[in-house]
Amino acid sequence: MSDNTEYREGPSEEADGDKRPCLVMIKGDFIGQVYELESDVTIVGRSDDVDLVVSDIIISRRHAMIVDRAVEYYLSDLGSTNGCLLNKEQNTTATVMSEGDKVTLGNIVFKFTYQDQDDTEYHMMLMNMAVKDGLTRIYNKRYFSEVLEKEFDYNRRNKVGLAIILFDIDHFKQVNDTWGHPAGDFILKHMAELIEDTARGYDVFARYGGEEFVFLLRGATLEAAVNLAERVREAVQNHVFQYDSVDLQITVSMGVICWNGDDEMEEAEALVEAADKHLYAAKEGGRNRVVHDPLPGADAED
Questions:
Q1: Any long-range contacts for 178-186 (C-beta under 8 Å, 24+ apart)?
Q2: What is the arithmetic mean of pLDDT over 195-223?
């Protein structure tokens, strides 16, 4: 998934008292996210080439337009399939928006408002609470699952490639049994930080559950996904985690799957299941390894 509008930081800092026109998502995948209206014209839609990308399959590629006319902001529908609502009423002509107005596009609802930096930080905190894991501060399973559904549909339409890397910590129960659950939490948190540093810039890295983690990569080839998995595996294997003056080392087992968008996969969850089968094979094969389908022109690697 491209690092597009959904992942933008909040409005740039100005004087503390300055209020800037914004849309705040109050219903949808990114509740609390703030989108500053920086341009004279802001196009909203599902396409990757609009100003504000909204990942909802029932939203049109170019759904609505917001225009800054000096002191007022006007909302217009761009002939969308499912329409554009302003305060639950169909928007058919360019209509001025007032503080607190609600804009509904498909299943997504925004509130039009003016915010200073404190307001923005508060809403960003709400968004992080909704999509981030409390311990590791990476994305949570709920967020991953929602993005996966949208990316699955996108790849079926555009066939750009979609890869999943599913992995977990080998013998993690022994860490908890030997050193206690605080040590286990320490490993989970600091391993996530290590992997973020190793794999910076990739689309989605999430905690899938317990000691299990997952990458989602839009536009990736199998070879690129396997290379990333190997980098992560080696980084974890070579790292020493220092917990209460004790040096701890762990390894991870990884399963990689890449889907080109054909009809072989009927639903998004089938991708995770395929990656999980490879993960299981990595465990059965001795752990601390990456298992995947054969690379083009090569045999499958362990």
A1: 179/243, 179/246, 179/248, 183/243, 183/244, 183/246, 183/248, 184/211, 185/135, 186/241, 186/243
A2: 91
Active site residue ranges = 211
Centre a 10 Å sphere on the Cβ of residue 285 and count the other Cβ atoms it contains.
12
Q: Is 156 in the same domain as 288?
A: yes
283 lies in a domain? yes
Tokens of 249: 């080392």
Q: How confident is the model at residue 299 (pLDDT cuts 50, 70, 90)?
A: low
| 4: confidence class by pLDDT, cuts 50, 70, 90 | very low
In a domain, 4, yes or no: no
Q: Which of 95, 129, 163 is the last residue of a domain?
A: 129
Specify whether the CB–CB gap between 212 and 166 falls below 8 A: yes
* 39/111 Cα distance (integer angstroms): 18
pLDDT, tens digit (0-9, with 9 covering 90-100), for 91-150: 989 999 999 999 999 989 999 999 888 877 777 777 777 788 999 999 999 889 988 988
- The backbone torsions φ and ψ at residue 249, rounded to the nearest 5 degrees and listed phi first, read -125, 140
Separation CA 281–CA 302 (nearest Å):
9
